[in-house]
Amino acid sequence: MANNLNHQTCYRCGAIATSNEHVPPKCLFPEQKDSFGYNYRDNLLTVPSCDEHNSKKSNDDEFLMLALAFLVKSNYVGFLQMHTKAARAIRRKGEKFVQNLTGPHFTNKSILINGKKSEVILATPDMDRIMNSLESISYGLYYHRFKGQFDGDVRIVIDFVIYQDTRTIEFQNIVRTLFDQEINEMSGKNNRVFQYQFTAMDNIGCIGLKMTFYEYSHVFVSFVPKSLLESEKTFTQLSIENGWPTTIKLKNGSTYTFNKKEGTV
What we know:
Elements: E1 19-22, E2 46-49, H1 58-69, H2 76-83, H3 85-93, H4 95-102, E3 106-113, E4 116-123, H5 127-146, E5 152-158, H6 166-182, E6 194-198, E7 207-213, E8 217-225, H7 226-229, H8 235-241, E9 246-249, E10 255-258
Antiparallel strand pairs: 1-2, 3-4, 5-8, 6-7, 7-8, 9-10
């Protein structure tokens, strides 16, 4: 059992805390032996946690580390992770684990990176495991920032995932634009690995969170309070879900259209 918890409760469920959990997971930060002696694990954030919401999710956290480390668009710290900690984990866990990471279907493709042709893998990883880890990080950061548990659900949009359906792509674009309007400066002691920032509460009671891993991989989170979850959906939400052509115009003049009819521009 961890010391100095002083009968604190778990950041996620309210049970008596038995340990401190790192948010984000410690495995995302390179060890000194892999980073030429530089300490990326200084000043890491922790929150009180019960066993269920700490040790039992360690495999999902490692899965997130591997998914981030093997992204093409990453900084040199992510590159170090790919060739050190991630490579060791894959050798240790074997081929079956790699198949879980890449999904049953993946392809090799040559693309240009900084003007040079490179071989990459296009795959669909186990998104449920990645989302589980991102949800835990989100709730943990909320607890750290506001000194209490969040009563509600989180809605997560992963910016570094390439989607195929136009509705999701448009939604991804609108979320990116909205957060860019709200957030100018990110927080984080180890910003080469991780940065984050909360937005102010909006007029319906939601709070936004932007997380950035290895400088280029962004995740957008909306904290939706329980009271709002129990209320009726807005007309705009219903229109999009029912497939009706819907255009949303933002304050900066940008417009995004969902369910556009064929033959329209």
